[in-house]
Amino acid sequence: MSRTALIVIDMLNTYAHEDAEPLVASVRKTLPGVTTLLEHARASDSPVIYVNDNFGDWRSHHGEILQTALDGRHGDLVEPVAPDENSLFVVKARHSIFFETPLAYLLGQLGTERLVMCGQVTEQCVMYSALDAHIRHFEVVVAADAVAHIDADLAEAALEMMRRNMSADICAVDEVTFDARCVK
């Protein structure tokens, strides 16, 4: 089993929120990077873990979250990154993928030491998740061209904060490997 896991953050989205339009434009640009990471992780037998907001629906499970997103205004952004039968799924309710979720336990069971993060939103959930991963002593890789933002300036600042303050390896999708640090 790979010691690296791909974490797909909040990509199953209905885009029915106030700041959806700028996010949709950014997701369209980053979608090829996310799909490439999914292909590479699956080809290397690395765990693929979706960690997704439940949108306040406490009766939902991963299948319902996926179907709701596919039926949403921008199902075309969800379909290419939909979980496959081997993907793992963790439901979250707040910004961090770790906050009151079983993710840390799951990663321990898998023997994971390194997380490659992609998804949305760079200046929110991705940044808070990178911080929580860092304080849990995980190596963090963020594929800069596979994370979507609402505000480009805040996203750039967030990436720099992750690099400088959280020791995250910020690199392009084509530099990400699932067996070592980014290739540069």
Summarize the structure.
The chain is an alpha/beta fold and 184 residues long. It has helices spanning 20-43, 62-70, 75-78, 103-110, 122-135, 152-166, and strands at 4-9, 48-53, 88-92, 114-120, 139-148, 169-171.
Topology readout:
Elements: E1 4-9, H1 20-43, E2 48-53, H2 62-70, H3 75-78, E3 88-92, H4 103-110, E4 114-120, H5 122-135, E5 139-148, H6 152-166, E6 169-171
Parallel strand pairs: 1-2, 1-4, 2-3, 4-5, 5-6
Helix pairs in contact: 5-6
Order of strands side by side in the largest beta sheet?
Answer: 3-2-1-4-5-6
Q: Give me the number of helical elements.
A: 6
Tell me the β content: 15-25%
The chain-level structural class is alpha/beta
Cα radius of gyration in angstroms: 15 Å
Low-confidence sequence ranges? none
Give the mean pLDDT: 92
Q: What helical percentage do the residues reach?
A: 40-55%
Helix-strand string:
EHEHHEHEHEHE
Please count the beta strands (DSSP E, at least 2 residues each). Answer: 6
Apparent shape? globular
